[in-house]
Task: inverse folding
């Protein structure tokens, strides 16, 4: 997640003073924003050497860890909020990490590219895979190992017994609450264990 407006929208879901774990924190931009504007503390989890270095240069606490191995190093409910932003589409064990997110955090916040956004549907209808700001890769070189939709995720969260506290889309830095499955390029959910 690098769009500044998107970061600010997500940050508003995090209560001030929260202890935060950011799974796949990238260069630590969101954690630095939460620290500086909402007085949050916490850690980022990142696998990339370059991003770990970027986090340390920002003064963000970061642990280098492969998320596919789980979050066994953290105790139950050890964070107020666990973020999983633009991470789900890169994981083989998406459902397991959702459960881990809810185990180590009181609240989980996820975001991912919404494959059901109308330009994506149109592109597939014309026989091509979409290449957009939210899905910027060609089909043959994408790091995304799965694509999902806003509605797919809503169904998965409810199937796994999570309570959806909020759900909306983001399009061009604006919150989309009306038909987010069709009208938003990014899907966002805030959830907790039921």
Result:
């Amino acid at each position: 997640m690098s769009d500044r407006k998107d970061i600010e929208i997500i940050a508003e879901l995090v209560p001030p003073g929260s202890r935060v774990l950011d799974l796949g924190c990238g260069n630590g931009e969101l954690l630095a924003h939460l620290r500086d504007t909402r007085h949050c503390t916490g850690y980022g989890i990142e696998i990339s050497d370059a991003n770990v270095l970027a986090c340390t240069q920002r003064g963000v606490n970061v642990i280098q860890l492969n998320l596919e191995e789980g979050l066994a190093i953290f105790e139950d409910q050890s964070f107020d909020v666990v973020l999983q932003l633009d991470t789900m589409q890169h994981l083989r064990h998406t459902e397991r990490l959702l459960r881990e997110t809810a185990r180590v955090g009181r609240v989980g916040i996820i975001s991912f590219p919404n494959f059901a956004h109308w330009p994506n549907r149109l592109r597939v209808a014309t026989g091509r895979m979409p290449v957009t700001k939210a899905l910027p890769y060609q089909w043959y070189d994408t790091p995304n190992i799965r694509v999902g939709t806003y509605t797919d995720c809503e169904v998965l969260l409810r199937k796994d017994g999570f309570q959806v506290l909020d759900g909306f889309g983001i399009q061009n830095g604006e919150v989309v609450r009306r038909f987010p499955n069709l009208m938003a390029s990014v899907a966002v959910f805030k959830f907790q264990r039921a």
In short: The chain has a mean pLDDT of 94.
